[in-house]
Amino acid sequence: MDQNSGIPVAKWLEDADEKEIADILYQYGEEKRSRKIAKIIKEKQQQTPIQTTKQLADIIALVVPAKKHKHPATRSFQALRIFINQELESLKILLADIHDILNIGGRLVVLSFHSLEDRIVKQFINKNSKAEILPKGLPIMEKDIKKAIFKNLGKFIASKKELECNIRARSAVGRVCQKIS
């Protein structure tokens, strides 16, 4: 993450309206309490500007109950990070260009830590690992038929041993494909 690019979260929260904050928290963090969080953020901003991550985390914790092994603000911070850094857009750009980057036989390995990222990668691999199915007997030249570009080599998750050493790996999903044409 380039901390010198983009807009600081504190500035974005100050400028954004309640609905925009709620939409971002819901869309990128899949946060069920997004409306309540956005409302309390705007209320607290009226009293004092939010300038630190601790302030923001404490405000979110007023609305989101604590869970074992997960801070109440985790989803919200994730949503803000993904939005501010345009992480999903960057992933989509990479995937759109990967065919030109990889040589035949080259492998793409993507490690995702969020279901939104994983969904994008999964859909990309599935879409590009299937040949076009056409009805028999159509007068279509072989060169015009869309062939599979990648072979789906599957997915992997952290082992129990890895999780004992690195609890943050609990949400990681890796997907692998190989360029075949």
From TrEMBL:
It holds the Pfam family Methyltransf_5. InterPro entries: RsmH (IPR002903), SAM-dep_MeTrfase_MraW_recog (IPR023397), SAM-dependent_MTases_sf (IPR029063). One of its GO terms (biological process) is rRNA base methylation. GO terms for cellular component: cytoplasm. One of its GO terms (molecular function) is rRNA (cytosine-N4-)-methyltransferase activity. Keywords: Methyltransferase, S-adenosyl-L-methionine, Transferase. The keyword Metal-binding does not apply. Belongs to the methyltransferase superfamily. RsmH family. This is rRNA small subunit methyltransferase H. It comes from hydrothermal vent metagenome.
